[in-house]
Amino acid sequence: MTAAVCLECGRMKTGAWKACPVCRFVPESLEDRARHLITTDHYLKPDKLEAISREIQAGQKPQFVDEQVRAVMEQLEQIDKDPREKQRMQRVKLQVRLVLIALGALILSGIWLWVNRG
Ligand SMILES: [Zn+2]
């Protein structure tokens, strides 16, 4: 079970790429999928996810760190290119996590700035 945030309406949902139970939004583009993957409990603490959820429901648009989104998009693109890779999703997730850890400072400052904005 993956706790995720719908970046359209801000409600918590299960599974980054599943349809939102409230607004039915499904992330389809590479960028949308990368953003929804980042806002799951795989990469962010539950209290961070809840803060993001509240901000979106309050009408704010989530701000992502470009380097972070691009890094995840590159990993997802590699999975899309090679169908065999899909069976190795767990390994790719680990690689994505390592990239995110490397960008950790950027991510934290980006989310922090966004959550505390305004
Ligand atoms: Zn939604």
Describe it.
- The structure is a single chain.
- With 118 residues, the chain is mostly helical.
- It has one domain (3-115).
- Helix content is 53%, strand content 5%.
- The protein has helices spanning 30-38, 46-57, 66-81, 89-102, 104-115, and strands at 3-5, 12-14.
- It has a two-stranded antiparallel sheet.
- The longest helix is centred in the middle third of the chain and has 16 residues, at 66-81.
Task: Provide key terms for this protein.
118 residues; mainly alpha; two-stranded antiparallel sheet; 5 helices; globular
Chart the SSEs and their pairings:
Blueprint: E1 3-5, E2 12-14, H1 30-38, H2 46-57, H3 66-81, H4 89-102, H5 104-115
Antiparallel strand pairs: 1-2
Helix pairs in contact: 1-3, 3-4
In angstroms, what separates the terminal alpha carbons?
A: 33 Å
User: What's the number of structural domains?
Assistant: 1
The number of helical runs is 5
Low-confidence stretches: none
| Bound small molecules, deduplicated | zinc ion
Radius of gyration from the alpha-carbon trace, in angstroms: 14 Å
| Neighbour order of strands in the largest sheet | 1-2
Number of strands: 2
Give the percentage of residues in beta strands.
5-15%
Secondary-structure element sequence?
EEHHHHH
Biggest sheet character = 2 strands, antiparallel
Question: Percent helix among the residues?
Answer: 40-55%
Protein name: CHASE3 domain sensor protein
Keywords: Membrane, Transmembrane, Transmembrane helix
Transmembrane segments: 94-115
Organism: Prosthecobacter dejongeii
Short description:
53% of the residues lie in helices and 5% in strands. The chain has 5 helices and 2 strands.
